Each structure stands twice: as C-alpha cells, then as structure tokens.
Fold:
Amino acid sequence: MGKNILIITGSPREKGNSNTLAESFRSGAAESGNEVKVFDAHKNRIGFYSAPVLLSEDDNPEAQELHRLLCWADVLVLATPVYFMGVTAGLKTVMDRLSPYATSDGKKCFHVEECYLIATATSADPHMFEAVCMEYDYLMTKLGIKHTSKLLVGGVADEGAVFDRHDALERAILMGYSVGKIGGVY
Ligand SMILES: Cc1cc2nc3c(=O)[nH]c(=O)nc-3n(C[C@H](O)[C@H](O)[C@H](O)COP(=O)(O)O)c2cc1C
Structure:
C-alpha cells in the first residue's frame, strides 16, 4: 500500500535547485503509488517556537494546515538550500516547531517513521553540508525516526543549475520511487 508523503520545502526560489530535486522525488514517489503533498515553508509562514505546544494550538491557518499534514504523513522530506551552513529560516522554524511532536501528546497523532533530507549548496565541498546534517540527524533522534537518508548536492548556485545534474535528479527520482519498498530507505 502507498504511503502518505509530506515534502516540506524551505527555498524562496520556486524553481530553485532544492525545489527541483523535491519535485523529482515527488514524481518518483507518485509513480510508485504513494500520495504526496507539499508544504512550502517559505511562503506559508508559521510562527516561531515559543512554547511546547502543537501547531494545532496556533490561530494561524498555515500552522493549522501544517499540523494536519504532519498527522497525515507516514514519510517526511525536508528540502532546503544551505544558507550560511544551515537550513533556511522557513525550514528551521518548522524543525523547531516539530519538537512537541516528540512528546507523548504529539505522538498521539505524529507517526512518521521515515525521513529524507534534500540539500543544495553553491560550494562543491562536502563539508559545507556538515552543520545541516548534524541538525537533521539530531532532529531525527529526538523524533525517534530511524529510517532516514540524505541527498546532498553541492556545486549548484544559480536557479535551475541542478537541471544539468542528471545524477542528482535521477537519485531524487529513485529515492522517491523507493519509499515504502522492500529494502528500506534508498
Ligand atoms: C543567504 C544565502 C546564504 C547562502 N549560504 C551558502 C553557504 O553557506 N554555502 C554554500 O555553498 N552556498 C550558500 N548559498 C548558496 C545556495 O545554497 C545555493 O545557491 C543553492 O543551490 C540554492 O538553492 P535553491 O535554488 O533551492 O534556493 C547561500 C545563498 C544564500 C541566498
């Protein structure tokens, strides 16, 4: 049976590199029978973390929508450009707000068991992704998500540069396609 996949994007560039890889992941995942929804964390502004409450407690409709999606999802995908070695502010806000979903209250609805990180950077130096990976790995530990994988694509600066990176686009499609398949996370 197909999985419910929620992709959360953090780039301000609609047709940017991380969003393009996220779209490739989406197409692969949809092709293999999963249902995929996308939440744009740059456009849809939820409030910063200020207390250990679920997003459903906020008045903001974007926060309410994200709460519904988080409770619907079996699989999460976090897609972001690297900004000063970190994730974008939009995605960081979502990551902070995920913290209450690790509590017993949050676990009543949050049941994600598989997660993917997609990140892009101008630098081709793999060290450029270290801080993002550490933050992501720690979030996975906190949320108790054991099945995770990463697609880190350096050397892409301009919007659309990743279209020349057929290796990365194919990997994103395959990652999406392999969700929920025997053999685990791609
Ligand atoms: C504010 C800002 C900070 C950035 N910081 C870094 C960085 O620390 N290292 C790097 O290699 N690229 C950095 N970049 C470049 C982006 O990570 C790169 O262009 C990426 O491919 C953009 O992805 P997008 O098209 O999905 O937005 C930065 C770009 C911006 C706008």
The chain has a mean pLDDT of 96.
